[in-house]
Amino acid sequence: MFSIRNTTLLVIAALMLACADGGGSSKPSAESAPAEKTGNEDKTNGKTAFDGERAFKHAKTQVEFGPRPAGTPANEKARDYIVRELKSYGLKTALDEFTENTPRGKVKFKNVIAELPGESPNAIIIASHFDTKPFKEFTFVGANDGASSTGAVLEIARVMAAENQSAGRKRKYTYWFVFFDGEEAFCHDWSECLGGNDHTYGSRYMVERLRKEKQLDRVKAMILLDMIGDKDLTIPREDGSSKWLVDAIWGTAQDIGYAKEFPDRHFTVGDDDYMPFLRAGISAVDIIDLEYGSSPEDNSYWHTAEDTLDKISPRSLKIVGDVVLLSLPKVEAQIR
Ligand SMILES: [Zn+2]
């Protein structure tokens, strides 16, 4: 994702230099721990069957595999785990397998796609990326950036598959749960290499494949989750996203009591896995929290060794899971 983010970081870096704290240690010494994290609350405050603890466990498992850049053994392990989970929910899975030239040479990528068939062959995509950004300087495990959204999409898939089974009927639309490989740039900056194309390998490939197979018209909406586990969850409206999807999702958040976590203010991401879909004329939305840092509104944990499990919470995952699941009827109702 981004361009705006880089600007923000530059500003933050400049401010840090100006303050001359000299440390580089931006650890939150006394970030007040919000009253949360009781698994009970997650399960009993109802709303949907989405289990925040389960989604958190998926994130933890991925983190334990270590750094998971595209083309690495740990990436393979994470993908196998995702496939195993999806199959255990009774979902049919498929892989998008392809090889691309990258700044690190030829890399093999694999997206995972699970299908929940609906009455209509037309599809709504709910997606995350599961790769993590490669760093030589430090160990980057991507608890929030990669693992949190992947855990949430797995749990959304489980809940929706179980609902279909218990209701004994299909939803109106087909759902594709998509786990993109290769979202992250191999080079340090998003647009530094390959003429600005060193990122979103998986989503760009999927859109091209659908186009070639003449399946692109089937996709009626794309909902992307990225960095949604922050304990201090703040997901403003993303201005690059399709407005009707933003209205449906943020409207739902307000209705069910999450106006604080989904505030009514606006920002722009710049780029992410939703962009290839938008460029192809498909409605898409990016649900992303870029205020992931030691104080509100800074993003200092992003792409650092600080992006660890202790910064994310089952409660935040549950909030996002509930909002997405409960917004789907509104989304479906607006598709013609
Ligand atoms: Zn990232």
In short:
This protein has 336 residues and is an alpha/beta fold. The protein is built from 9 helices and 8 strands. The protein has one domain: Aminopeptidase.
User: CATH H level: which superfamily?
Assistant: Zn peptidases
Percent of residues in helical segments?
25-40%
* Molecular shape: globular
Low-confidence stretches: 5-44
Tell me which ligands are bound: zinc ion
- SSE pattern, N- to C-terminal: HHHHEEEHEHEEHEHEH
Number of domains: 1
Overall residue-averaged pLDDT value: 89
User: Which percent range describes the beta-strand content?
Assistant: 15-25%
- Sketch the major β-sheet: 6 strands, mixed
Number of helices: 9
Task: Compute the number of strand runs.
Answer: 8
Distance between the termini: 30 Å
> How would you classify the helix and strand content by structural class?
alpha/beta
What would the CATH topology be? Aminopeptidase
Could you characterize the architecture of this molecule?
The chain is of the alpha/beta class. The chain has one domain (52-333): Aminopeptidase, CATH 3.40.630. Helix content is 38%, strand content 17%. The chain contains 9 helices and 8 strands. The strands form 2 sheets. Strands 1-2-4-3-5-8 form a 6-stranded mixed β-sheet, with helices on both faces. It has a two-stranded parallel ribbon with strand order 6-7. The relative contact order is 0.19. Residues 5-44 have low confidence and may be disordered. Zinc ion (ZN) binds at residues 133, 145, 184, 303. Residues 133, 145, 184, 303 line the site of zinc ion.
